[in-house]
Amino acid sequence: MLQHTAGLNVAKAHEAIRKAGDTPNVNQAELAKARELVRKAQWMWDIVSAENSMGFHNTDQTMTTLGQANELAHQAIESANLAAGINVL
Predict the structure, then answer these.
(1) pLDDT per residue over 13-64, tens digit each?
(2) Distance CA 76, CA 81 (A)
(3) Could you read off the pLDDT of 62-75 as tens digits, one per residue?
(4) Residue 72 CA: distances (Å) to CA of 2, 22, 87
(5) In order of start, what are the domains of the chain with their CATH numbers?
(6) Nearest C-alpha neighbor of 5 from the set 48, 37, 58
(7) Which of 40, 29, 34 is nearest to 69 (CA)?
(8) For the whole model, what pTM was predicted?
(9) Could you report how far apart the first and last alpha carbons of the chain are, in Å?
(10) Nearest to residue 34, comparing CAs of 23, 21, 43?
């Protein structure tokens, strides 16, 4: 289920940001970018979750919104890793 996957990725992004924040000499600008991205991802996921119908009225928009949440979460993880100086390919 896309909602579950997006939720897991948002949670992973929050954890990556927490770990990056604990890193000495973290790049604060990149960490701020990661935090902004995870806020947007969380917002997208929350919209679908609060609706509690999994897109009954507009399935296409629900899938698009969850896809955006997923993509933003991945971007947040990448930014958090860059902030901490972790290069993941």
Answers:
(1) 999 999 999 999 999 999 999 999 999 999 999 999 998 776 667 889 999 9
(2) 9
(3) 999 999 999 999 99
(4) 14, 22, 18
(5) 2-84 (1.20.140.10)
(6) 48
(7) 40
(8) 0.91
(9) 26
(10) 21
